[in-house]
Amino acid sequence: MKRRLALASLSLAVALGCGTLPAAAADTDRSTTTSTTTASANAAPDVDVTKVKAHLTELSAIAGRNGGNRRSTGQGYDDSVAYVKGRLQAAGYTVTEQPCTSGCTSGAGPNLIAEWPHGDANDVHMFGAHLDGVSAGPGMNDNGSGSAALLETALTLAQQNPTMRDRVRFAWWTDEEQGLNGSDFYVRSLSSAERSRIKAYYNFDMVASVNGGYFINHITSAAAAPMKAYWDSLGLQPEENTEGAGRSDDYSFEQYGIPTSGYAMGAGARKTSAQAAKWGGTAGASYDPCYHRSCDTLSNINTTGLDRAADGIAHTLWQRAVDTGAGGGCDTAGAVANGGFESGTAPWTGNTGAIGAHSGQSAHGGTRFAWLAGYGSTRTEAIGQTVTVPSGCARVTLGYWLHIDTDESGSTPYDRFTVKADGSTLATLSNADARSGYVQRSVDLTAYAGRQVTVTFTGSEDASLQTSFVLDDVTLQGA
Are 384 and 240 part of one and the same domain? Predict the structure, then answer.
């Protein structure tokens, strides 16, 4: 990741050791060891993290043979390009080295662009990571981690060889550490028509920070929906990547109006107490204590985070570009718009005054939520939106996080929360289901496959004693 000049003095002042810090909470996702899982017709495969780490080992050895780094102007970078290019060509990719002829540091090596030659070339989904590092060290987390995860995802796609709906293009960027120069040159070199074919760009920069968190660029955007849905399915409660805003190659695409997102686990900023409570690790310490330092070696890699990032990349790719079966596939990305309520009230309808950053309750993620009922008097409030349920999924669920806060006692259901689809009740909860904090819940929408359906959440109270139903992070997920 490129360091902003305004942050340089702070980062240089941090003098932390580089021993392995506690990883995130215990894994609930697929194994971090070798897996032979094969993708079903509508599910992404497990990207083998041991193979991702094997690529990191190769990049480390390249740095070791070239003065200890892989800076864009050195032989370490050129050898990194040659390694990645060789693996991609052997897998059947169309691979191009693009010299950066303007805007890059003198002597910088090329961008590496690899296209899987299947799917609609008018609908391109790009996945990228910068391949260069700083002069201080081998750059294993920054950004060997993103480069290696991207490479193994590309090789997994080639090995699985699914039927493609859209085109997938991978990129490994030069000269990012000097100012996002390689990616900027690439986007500038495209014609307007070529840019319009890129439906989204996904960036992966520092996805294995040893004291890291789970961050997503533009987390509430439509582009981010499949990335967030995957990490939500692991219970990770990801947050917006505020530290990385404008500091990595996605920014080059943003400048031209191309939708972007991506994963990151953090750089030189410090983990908060709240983040340590939900993800593990050390509060008050940098996400990556070896950021831009010589100790950014193979020992500076969080394998659990790396695995979760690689699998999330594959999930996003499959959702966006793979033809997952007849009838429109299983792409649930963006089916629920503004599910975290961070973008105002649209397209929610009903009692939309319930949506906001109200005092007295807190959000599950972000700052906003929907607070239904909670008046201590007879009252009913409801919000809803129309969603399209894809037809190509074996199962579709509507997931949501709900906090029930009540002054009632006992098990009598005085106040109720219901979830309905086109008026049919799919779930009912009450004051008797109150818990401390949010609980993740879901309802099955498989019966509505291939249809538009209006989903409604309703909170209702009787005449006395308040019960609040606090709703957040609504998603549609397919399997």
Answer: no
342 an active-site residue?
no
Query: Which residues 6+ apart lie within 8 Å of 406 measured at CB?
Result: 415, 431, 434, 465, 466, 467, 468
Residues 314 and 353 in one domain: no
CA distances from 165 to 67, 109, 141, 210 (A): 44, 33, 33, 37
- Residue predicted with more confidence, 334 or 209: 209
Domain holding 353, by residue range, is 349-478
pLDDT higher for 390 or 175? 175
User: How many folded domains does the chain comprise?
Assistant: 2
Q: How far apart are CA 397 and CA 374, in angstroms?
A: 27
Catalytic residue among 58, 115, 176, 254: 176
One domain, residues 306 and 378: no
pLDDT per residue over 423-447, tens digit each?
899 999 999 999 999 999 999 998 8
pLDDT of 3 reads 53
CA distance 448 to 335: 13
- Clarify whether residues 316 and 185 are in a common domain: yes
